[in-house]
Amino acid sequence: MLPAGNVDFNDSHNAIWGSAPGDVWAVGDLGGISHWDGTGWTQSTYGALPFFPFLNKVHGSSAGDVWVAGRNFDASTGIILHYEP
Questions:
Q1: With CB atoms 3.0 to 4.6 Å apart as the test, which of 9, 45, 56, 81 could cross-link to 14 if both were Cys?
Q2: CA-to-CA distance for 54 and 85, rounded, in angstroms?
Q3: Predicted TM-score of the model (pTM)
Q4: How far apart are CA 33 and CA 42, in angstroms?
Q5: 54 vs 58, 73, 74, 82, CA distance in Å?
Q6: Where are the domains of the chain?
Q7: Which residue(s) pair with 27 in the sheet?
Q8: pLDDT digits (tens, 9 = 90+) for 62-82
Q9: How far apart are CA 34 and CA 18, in angstroms?
Q10: CA 63, CA 23: separation in Å to the nearest integer?
C-alpha cells in the first residue's frame, strides 16, 4: 500500500489507526505522518533536521479529531500533536 518507487517516503511507522477504510493514519520515526484517503498515501513530516521526533502513538475519535504522541529527538521531552481539519 506504500507508494512504489517513492524513495522520499518514510516507511518507518510505529503505529497505525483509522476511523474508516478511507481514513487511516500512520506515524513513525523521523516525524513521519502518513495518511491513507482510500486511494493513496500522502505524507507530511513534523520537525526539521536534525531535530526530527520519534512518533509512536496515533488515535482519535473521528476523521476530524486525531492525536499523535511521541518523544523529542533526544528523548528529553514528550510531544503531543492534534489534527483537526
A1: 56
A2: 23
A3: 0.84
A4: 9
A5: 12, 6, 9, 16
A6: 13-83
A7: 15, 33
A8: 999 999 999 988 878 899 999
A9: 11
A10: 7
